[in-house]
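Chain A, query sequence.
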Amino acid sequence: MLFSQSKPDDIVGVWYSPVKEGNVQIFKSGKKYLGKLTYLKHSVDNHGKPILDVNNPDKEKRKMPLVGILLLTEITFDNKKNSWKGKLYDYDGAKGNTYDSYLTITKNGNLNIKGFWGLSFFGLNPGLTLEKVDVE
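Chain A, predicted structure.
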């Protein structure tokens, strides 16, 4: 269930997975929103080196650490649907694909992200739910 009406900037902030495995910072850039991976619990390998984005389809980006990559891009607010839409980069998959996505804020204030390929009812997963970090 959604809030009665979300505002476009409601997604701005730092969101974390309920099991505290990672953080995504969503920020505004021009008229769109972006989401950057800012924390990953297991961000280094056994030798203390950063885990790289090895599945990225762009060979040059495969050398980049996962922490700092843009997971969410081209995010815009759809006032009629009371949700956001954009692109979700799946760094954890075997191919590093980018999917269309819908983002909604639930009744309890969590951010639900659902990625899909083609038609929205062919979702990748039941969705990813993130909780907002309170920063004062």
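The chain has no helices and eight strands. Confidence is low (pLDDT under 50) at residues 119-123.
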